[in-house]
Amino acid sequence: FGSSLGFWFKRQFDDLKGKEQGLSNTVQVDPFGGLYRKLTFNQDHKLLGGLLVGNAEDYFSLLNLSKQENLGKKVPGDLFLGGSGDGDAEDLSDDSVVCLCQKVTKGQIVDAIKNDDACTIPDIKKCTTAGNGCGGCVLSTGFIPKILKSTLESMGKTVFTGISPYFPFTRAELFEIIRVKQLKTYEDVVKECARVGKIPDMQAALVGDEVCKPVVASILASLWNEVPVNDGLRELQDTNDYVMANIQRSGQYSVIPRVAGGEITPQEMILMGTVALKYNLWMKITGAQRVGLFGASIWQLPDIWEDLVTGRACFQGNDSIKVQSSVETEGMESGQAYGKALRAVKSCVGTSWCRFGQQDAVTMAVKLEERYKGFRAPHKMKMGVSGCMRECAEAQGKDIGLVATVKGYNLYVCGNHGTSPKHAQLFLSDLSEEECFKYIDRILMYYTFTATPLTRTSKWLENLEGGIEHLREVVVDDSLGLCAEFERRWDEQVERYECEWKKVVDTPELRKKFRQFVNADEKKYGDLPWEQVRKQKKIQLEDMPTIIGPAKITKDKKTDNWTWRDVGAVEDYPKNGGAAAKISKTELAVYHSSVTGKWYAAQNSCPHKQLQVLSRGLIGMAGATPKVACPIHKNTYNLETGKGISNPGLNLATFDAKAENGRVLIFVPPDDVLDKSLGRDAPAGNGHSCGGACGETSKDLQW
């Protein structure tokens, strides 16, 4: 980081160059923890910039300090790791940027709290847009929760600790209520736990929003393990679980099958390659030792997964693609890369091949993945197994890590890489295989019972009263008397497990949920053009511009030539969610709210980057106002007026909608007027997902 570009261009961080300019450095090195920190100051002790390697959790604090004229009450020595990591929010000036993604300052946060009655993180996100980017600033380690706490306390108020205004409970409290009362549907949870204010009981069945619905969905999944896209559950899911795939910047999705322990057969490799050729998907080895297929449109997902789970695929080449491929194998399961679940278990080859191996790391990794696959937790989890102390699988940087010894395995817990890397802590040494599973069962279940939403295991352990010693007491000594239940629940989880995508493939009603449009059989191949990059085609990096200002068309300006248009049967739309419809060349998002009992329609394109994805967003209430949250960037919109809630500069075209005689109707202008305002050119229809960029036609590709 640096307070100006000059810091880098003048190489002020370099000792020799720095001395020539009268600068000084502090250096902190921990070779055992992989830590290196160099901070550069001028003669007035102004922080100019620095280099952080390893633990960079105080990056934002240091970045803000580098933009100040001085260190305030601090001296350079205070900025060693731990000196600024806790980042006192009161030391920040009002113009300090606390959300880098949205460029929101501390002063704006304070104004929202004092003037707009923003008493929760969701309130702050709505009022200021802070946290609507990567979300790091609103986590417990960010400045915004600290600013919220200190500002409310200065006003004589206490910080709200519930997951949302609808549910005044922490996640752990809500988890316990749902577990004890055996609540298995969202309606049951709302009835027992929600505070719905003045909303009539009949209309409160599915009250909630994009904040609390995914939390409840996660808890229900952890306890009862149902397929996320089942009726009544899909409407609760956040962006990725909504379609059981990771959404990409093009509005398309990635497909990542499970490769247990990183062990993959030649037939499985051929299967994935054949599927990639057949659907023209971009391939890459992921950071978690798996193969990712990118660029799938929503309507293609069931077809792609049918090939993968059945293990049968065929591709016939053409003049441009001189490859023919056909394969039959046992099939592959979902890797849950889209869920807050176990992503993968990384392994070295261990005693299978390595001359230094002390245990069979691959077999152990496969067993771990088979036991813990599919389990939904407060956040994603990664594991690793190394066959010896050389640690080729980097197990000590995982949520759960096993490092082989002569006697068994050392168990490491609560580490992670990512934005705030944490070295895992040694939990127990020289464990047998049976002991490993026993303690991992208990640790993960205790984490799931007690963690706050979207909290990695490392932060959970940091915030756990008593730390790792308390965790040992709970897990090893059974101090809370919960271990029997932990183990029983894991056995039930393993017994109940089924591949989510196989269930969708085999269930016609679930496959229907992935249609591109409710009222048309037409299909489209994403919103951004594709281009040749290196050896493969991928989407172009240039995003479409954000459209700021009033909507191009609005129901308030309707004229006599507007008409009601049929966009499908009521039964084909979710009871409390949205789906896409098409009129002429225009995509529309159609919603039904069980809270208001009304139908709504809007443009399907989010003004921010113009991706046609709004129909896949979560709907909810902002007070008495129905709203929808964009599934990509989380901008929220008023479904009645189309006005932006989280960002007033972004606005939607909205239309009147109603249900009549079992059909859904939308009041819209003539096709030419509608298309001129909101339409896109018809999809190329070339049979694969490059949107016409490659110049091939459907007759050229045969499968």
From TrEMBL:
<keyword id="KW-0408">Iron</keyword>
<dbReference type="InterPro" id="IPR052034">
    <property type="entry name" value="NasD-like"/>
</dbReference>
<dbReference type="InterPro" id="IPR012748">
    <property type="entry name" value="Rieske-like_NirD"/>
</dbReference>
<dbReference type="InterPro" id="IPR007419">
    <property type="entry name" value="BFD-like_2Fe2S-bd_dom"/>
</dbReference>
<dbReference type="Pfam" id="PF04324">
    <property type="entry name" value="Fer2_BFD"/>
</dbReference>
<dbReference type="GO" id="GO:0051537">
    <property type="term" value="F:2 iron, 2 sulfur cluster binding"/>
</dbReference>
<comment type="similarity">
    <text>Belongs to the nitrite and sulfite reductase 4Fe-4S domain family.</text>
</comment>
<keyword id="KW-0349">Heme</keyword>
<keyword id="KW-0411">Iron-sulfur</keyword>
<dbReference type="InterPro" id="IPR041854">
    <property type="entry name" value="BFD-like_2Fe2S-bd_dom_sf"/>
</dbReference>
<dbReference type="InterPro" id="IPR017941">
    <property type="entry name" value="Rieske_2Fe-2S"/>
</dbReference>
<protein>
    <recommendedName>
        <fullName>Rieske domain-containing protein</fullName>
    </recommendedName>
</protein>
<keyword id="KW-0534">Nitrate assimilation</keyword>
<keyword id="KW-0560">Oxidoreductase</keyword>
<dbReference type="GO" id="GO:0042128">
    <property type="term" value="P:nitrate assimilation"/>
</dbReference>
<dbReference type="GO" id="GO:0046872">
    <property type="term" value="F:metal ion binding"/>
</dbReference>
<dbReference type="InterPro" id="IPR036922">
    <property type="entry name" value="Rieske_2Fe-2S_sf"/>
</dbReference>
<feature type="domain" description="Rieske">
    <location>
        <begin position="564"/>
        <end position="666"/>
    </location>
</feature>
<keyword id="KW-0004">4Fe-4S</keyword>
<keyword id="KW-0479">Metal-binding</keyword>
<keyword id="KW-0001">2Fe-2S</keyword>
<dbReference type="InterPro" id="IPR036136">
    <property type="entry name" value="Nit/Sulf_reduc_fer-like_dom_sf"/>
</dbReference>
<dbReference type="GO" id="GO:0008942">
    <property type="term" value="F:nitrite reductase [NAD(P)H] activity"/>
</dbReference>
<dbReference type="GO" id="GO:0020037">
    <property type="term" value="F:heme binding"/>
</dbReference>
<dbReference type="Pfam" id="PF13806">
    <property type="entry name" value="Rieske_2"/>
</dbReference>
<dbReference type="InterPro" id="IPR006067">
    <property type="entry name" value="NO2/SO3_Rdtase_4Fe4S_dom"/>
</dbReference>
<dbReference type="Pfam" id="PF01077">
    <property type="entry name" value="NIR_SIR"/>
</dbReference>
<dbReference type="InterPro" id="IPR006066">
    <property type="entry name" value="NO2/SO3_Rdtase_FeS/sirohaem_BS"/>
</dbReference>
<dbReference type="InterPro" id="IPR045854">
    <property type="entry name" value="NO2/SO3_Rdtase_4Fe4S_sf"/>
</dbReference>
<dbReference type="GO" id="GO:0051539">
    <property type="term" value="F:4 iron, 4 sulfur cluster binding"/>
</dbReference>
